[in-house]
């Protein structure tokens, strides 16, 4: 469980625990007897002996509230737990096996949903007589189909995913797949459903008790207390306030607790949302205002990104800097985990929730010539830039296009999002033709699954260049495609760049061969840092960092007998070696490399390296 999740869980968790403890320990507390009447003092206000006053029979209100919590909570939790177990089981079985099993589980459970809940509860209570046991029974019947539907829907989605198919391909037994693979992956929405159901169960229990169909008087229950207080509302309005307040606060607290629990249980942090402008800017130190004198199109300076690690925050991108001129193509290259994607996402203002920028600036020159720091730009302004001045193409065109919307409509969206209203259809067809889609009029009407992977990527590119962006960010746009299609897409990007003239491109890749094809300059990243930078031709001809040299030597396009893999792997962000981060894998490492962390030093105009021994490589 994530540290952040645990911290957020602490407050609602502790309060809920305290309420539960009080409910459990009520018999041990020095409270007045909740059913002992004192008619002489009926409706008496708060006093030292009765902190919240006395009710219409002179019973102690505080004692009845606490005893009522015990009854309400135990009925609500017991009914929800029974409903959760039965409903989840039915939903998972129905969703996994489908067919007859689905009919016998989910569909049968859904019959219950056809009855109005109160009517069904009335029927059960009439048949079995009022009491806590009957309440638990009728509430669990009422709530089980809700769990079955959530579990069923989630199982259907998860069933189609690769990790479930992979388990089946490995021959894992069905029971194991259901319990070990499916259940944890559908747990988050079930937990939310649990919170909502406990809250509904408390409200329904109070409602039924209020109607005289739940807890039997004189036993204390919040519903019964509201019923009693209603009759004397004009003489003692506070009596109505206490049970209502207890009910409302407990329901709100339960919802908060379960929301936090869901966030903490989900390691993807998907519920956390992107860090808001305020949180992002508060994490950043104040930076000098961007002057209008910054040359070029883009200047990334000292960019440092942080994520929560097992033992505190870790920097996954450290002090990264580079610049880009209009019309230039810069490649960011490095192995998996080197921080290339996060650097690109930081430029677009699309960092995942767990990643926080803690230092640096990203200066961008807009169409109007003004220079803005993208790291400190409010989300509203970023949204105006995205898709117009800044555009991005992603690695996997299958997951970046909406499967339910026609291709032409998706390209038109990017035009309409930035105020284009006239002649959209003609421009979409022209764009699709520009990116080389055959028969663009017909293809515009196709759905993404009806065209090939390469064509989908062409559609993504059409949407990205629709508004003539000043900067196009391409994150491994050819990795998901086969080699011939890769070459076509690279040729298309190069042609588009020539046609667009001033459009700059940042091309993120792990493939040096692609860098040679497309880029003017390259930044080589390793373990979150820039280790070398320079014009592509110079980098290839004379690398000045052992990592660049090793990457070149490991290119499959080289002579097969000289192909050399780089030993070891990129270190984990929370276990970075002291000194030079590449030293443990470097053939040229010497003692000093393990002790000092070399700075990125400019060795010639436009060339920089982070190596103590770069001169020896010359
Ligand atoms: N959402 C996240 N939460 C926590 N850590 C993350 C997150 N995204 C990335 N990281 C970490 O940041 C580091 C850099 O990730 P990044 O995706 O930028 O690498 P990359 O060079 O683009 O690799 P790849 O080519 O595999 O995408 C990795 O070590 C990764 O574990």
From TrEMBL:
Q: Which residues form the ABC transporter domain?
A: 298-552
Q: Could you state one GO cellular component term attached to this entry?
A: plasma membrane
TM annotation in the entry: 71-96, 108-128, 134-152, 190-216, 236-258
Would the keyword Transport turn up in this protein's UniProt record?
yes
Task: Report the CDD domains cross-referenced here.
Answer: ABC_NikE_OppD_transporters, TM_PBP2
GO terms of biological process kind:
peptide transport; transmembrane transport
What's the name of the protein? Dipeptide/oligopeptide/nickel ABC transporter permease/ATP-binding protein
Q: Give the family, as the similarity comment puts it.
A: Belongs to the ABC transporter superfamily. Belongs to the binding-protein-dependent transport system permease family.
């Amino acid at each position: 469980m994530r540290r952040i999740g645990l911290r957020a869980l602490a407050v609602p968790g502790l309060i809920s625990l305290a309420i539960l403890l009080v409910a459990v320990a009520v018999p041990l507390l020095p409270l007045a007897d909740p059913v002992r009447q004192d008619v002489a003092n009926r409706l008496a206000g708060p006093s030292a002996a009765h902190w919240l006053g006395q009710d219409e029979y002179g019973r102690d209100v505080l004692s009845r509230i606490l005893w009522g919590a015990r009854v309400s909570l135990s009925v609500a939790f017991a009914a929800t737990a029974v409903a959760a177990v039965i409903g989840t089981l039915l939903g998972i079985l129905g969703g996994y096996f489908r067919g007859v099993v689905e009919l016998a589980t989910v569909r049968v459970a859904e019959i219950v949903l056809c009855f109005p809940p109160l009517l069904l509860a009335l029927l059960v209570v009439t048949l079995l007589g009022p009491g806590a046991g009957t309440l638990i029974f009728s509430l669990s019947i009422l709530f089980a189909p809700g769990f079955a539907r959530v579990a069923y829907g989630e199982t259907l989605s998860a069933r189609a995913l690769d990790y479930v198919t992979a388990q089946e391909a490995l021959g894992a037994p069905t029971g194991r797949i259901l319990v070990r693979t499916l259940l944890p992956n559908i747990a988050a929405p079930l937990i939310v459903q649990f919170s909502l159901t406990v809250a509904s169960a408390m409200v329904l229990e109070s409602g039924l008790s209020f109607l005289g169909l739940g807890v039997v008087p004189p036993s204390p229950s919040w519903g019964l207390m509201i019923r009693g207080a209603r009759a004397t509302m004009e003489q003692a309005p506070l009596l109505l306030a206490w049970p209502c307040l207890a009910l409302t606060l407990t329901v709100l607290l339960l919802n908060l607790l379960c929301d936090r629990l869901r966030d903490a249980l989900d390691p993807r942090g998907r519920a956390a949302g992107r860090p808001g402008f305020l949180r992002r800017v508060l994490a950043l130190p104040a930076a000098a205002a961007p002057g209008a004198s910054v040359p070029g199109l883009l200047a990334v300076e000292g960019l440092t990104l942080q994520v929560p690690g097992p033992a505190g925050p870790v920097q996954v991108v450290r002090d990264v800097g580079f610049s880009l001129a209009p019309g230039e193509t810069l490649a960011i290259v490095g192995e998996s985990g080197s921080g290339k994607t996060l650097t690109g996402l930081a430029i677009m203002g699309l960092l995942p929730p767990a990643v926080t920028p803690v230092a640096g600036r990203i200066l961008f020159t807009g169409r109007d010539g003004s220079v803005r720091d993208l790291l400190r730009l409010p989300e509203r302004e970023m949204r105006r830039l995205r898709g117009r001045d800044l555009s991005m193409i992603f690695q996997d065109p299958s997951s970046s296009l909406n499967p339910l919307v026609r291709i032409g409509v998706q390209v038109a969206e990017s035009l309409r999002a930035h105020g284009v209203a006239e002649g959209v259809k003609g421009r979409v067809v022209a764009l699709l033709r520009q990116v080389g889609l055959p028969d663009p009029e017909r293809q515009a009407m196709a759905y993404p699954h009806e065209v090939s992977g390469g064509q989908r990527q062409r559609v993504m590119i059409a949407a990205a260049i629709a508004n003539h962006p000043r900067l196009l960010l391409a994150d491994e746009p050819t990795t998901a495609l086969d080699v011939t299609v890769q070459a076509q897409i690279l040729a298309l990007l190069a042609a588009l760049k020539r046609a667009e003239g001033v459009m700059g491109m940042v091309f993120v890749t792990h493939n040096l061969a692609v860098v040679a094809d497309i880029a003017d300059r390259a930044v080589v990243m390793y373990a979150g840092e820039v280790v070398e930078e320079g014009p592509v031709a110079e980098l290839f001809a004379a690398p000045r960092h052992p990592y660049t040299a090793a990457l070149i030597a490991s290119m499959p396009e080289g002579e097969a007998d000289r192909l050399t893999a780089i030993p070891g792997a990129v270190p984990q962000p929370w276990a970075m070696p002291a000194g030079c981060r590449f030293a443990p894998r470097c053939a040229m490492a010497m003692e000093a490399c393990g002790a000092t962390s070399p700075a990125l030093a400019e060795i010639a105009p436009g060339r920089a390296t982070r190596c103590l021994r770069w001169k020896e490589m010359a």
